Amino acid sequence: MKESLRKVFAPILNVFESGNEPFAYKPSHRKILVFVSAVFSMLAVIVVALDPGEDKGYLFPVIVFSLIGLVGLVVGFLGTDRAVAKIWGSR
After folding, report:
1. Which DSSP state fits 26?
2. Where would you tag: which of 28, 62, 73, 76 has the fewest CB atoms within 10 A of its CB?
3. pLDDT tens for residues 5-41?
């Protein structure tokens, strides 16, 4: 299952898993990444739930929070240690 999901999300994962420079990774980085990404995803859902009506200006934060949450969750659950370290900027 994980390998099939890795194939589906390969365009996102390839960006963060590329390279061969040394990196610093700690298991807590992955946990924090998943937590922060879940918070961004929840923010997107909350903004949609608080739909102000006719004004569609709320869609911009929904799209931004959703994309950040999606990328973080994909890298957090499916990415390698290198991908997680690259998100944090660890070298």
Report:
1. -
2. 28
3. 999 999 999 999 888 888 888 889 999 999 999 999 9
- Residue 88's pLDDT is 87
CA 91/CA 67 separation, integer angstroms? 25
Q: Left, alpha or beta for 89 (phi > 0: left; psi -120 to 50: alpha)?
A: left
Q: Which two tokens stand for residue 42?
A: 């929840």
* Closest by Cα among 72, 91, 90, 82 to 31: 72
Could you tell me the CA-to-CA distances from 42 to 1, 10, 35 in Å, in that order? 25, 24, 11
The CB density around residue 52, as the number of other CB atoms within 10 Å, is: 9
